[in-house]
Amino acid sequence: MATKENENGVKGFQMRQQVHRTKWETFKNAIYNPSTKEFLGRTGKSWGQLLTFYFIFYVVLAALFAICMQALLATLDDKEPKWQLERSLIGTNPGLGFRPISERTEEGSLIWYDQKNETAINKWVKLIDKFLDPYLKEQNGKNFERCDFDKPANDSKVCEVNLDKYGDCSRENSYGYNSSSPCVFLKLNKIFGWVPEYYTNATDEMRKYDADFAKFVETNGADHQVWVSCQGEKPVDKENTGGFRYFPSQGFPSYYFPYKNVKNYLSPLVAVQVLNTAPNVIISIECRAWAKNIKYSSSNLQREGSVRFEILRD
């Protein structure tokens, strides 16, 4: 708006004439204004200053991030965790797991099969095959060696796990799922540096938990193992099973411990064959790992040192 004085000295205001543009012209003008030579509201110089600022800002930010990551990685070891045992989130109490587990989450820990149905048998056989795949690969020519209680592996080698010693719990036998005596594989979770404190004699807790197992430990206690015992969870479950067989032994041998993250390490396995399961009834089974430094809790909310699964045979 400008002022203009007439011949009598009277000043008046002259309104600036409005420029009428179409929406398309307004849009084009917002993208590039030829009168001010602005692109998206900024001149070339302004855009250059802005882009230079952000370029320097992100270069400095990336450099600071790289320095922090390098400092963090310098505190880590490729082969062992920084925080171990009591100082780690995992702690010192290994969990006990089992296989096979159904891929259908609604079945949970239930192993439901029909020994006369080839499709049902193959379902469980394939699940176990998948679990055992690392164990089925050729172990010769690598850093595996045959170990014994008086011959543990050295620091650069690992003990082999020979599936030929698993008796009736073999692939040729369909892992027992073509019979009334299916097999379940048990494995302890790996904890770096954890060394079991072995039971060499039966305890009152063992006798109370399973008298036959206590007698077994009394006889075989010289073999240092993390012992394993399974039983029906309730009296009715015990009545519906004909006992248990363990392959290759009733425990995890000492020469597999401690776990040190050596290449090709395979966790030891115990195959439990549940004998002569009663048909058409759900049988709840608990398996427990025994070592002085394995805490035990049978609570379903916080189960420790044991695992629970169910078997239903049609």
Radius of gyration: 36 Å
Let me know the number of strands: 15
Helix content, binned percent: 25-40%
Major β-sheet strand ordering? 6-15-14-10-12
Give the N-terminus to C-terminus distance in angstroms. Answer: 96 Å
Described by strand count, sense and barrel closure, the largest sheet is: 5 strands, mixed
List the helices and strands and how they pair.
Blueprint: E1 2-5, E2 11-14, H1 23-31, E3 32-33, E4 38-39, H2 44-73, E5 96-99, E6 110-113, H3 118-136, E7 144-145, E8 158-159, E9 183-188, H4 204-209, H5 211-220, E10 225-232, H6 235-239, E11 244-247, E12 251-253, E13 270-274, E14 283-290, E15 306-313
Parallel strand pairs: 6-15, 7-8
Antiparallel strand pairs: 1-2, 3-4, 5-9, 9-13, 10-12, 10-14, 11-13, 14-15
Kindly summarize this structure in a few lines.
This protein has 314 residues and is an alpha+beta fold. Helices cover 25% and strands 21% of the residues.
Q: Which key features would you list for this structure?
A:
alpha+beta; 25% helix; 314 residues
Structure characterization notes:
Helix content is 25%, strand content 21%. A five-stranded mixed β-sheet has the order 6-15-14-10-12. A four-stranded antiparallel β-sheet has the order 5-9-13-11. It is α+β, with helices and mostly antiparallel strands and 314 residues long. The N and C termini lie far apart (96 Å). The radius of gyration is 36 Å and the shape is elongated. The relative contact order is 0.14. It has helices at residues 23-31, 44-73, 118-136, 204-209, 211-220, 235-239, and strands spanning 2-5, 11-14, 32-33, 38-39, 96-99, 110-113, 144-145, 158-159, 183-188, 225-232, 244-247, 251-253, 270-274, 283-290, 306-313. It is built from six helices and 15 strands.
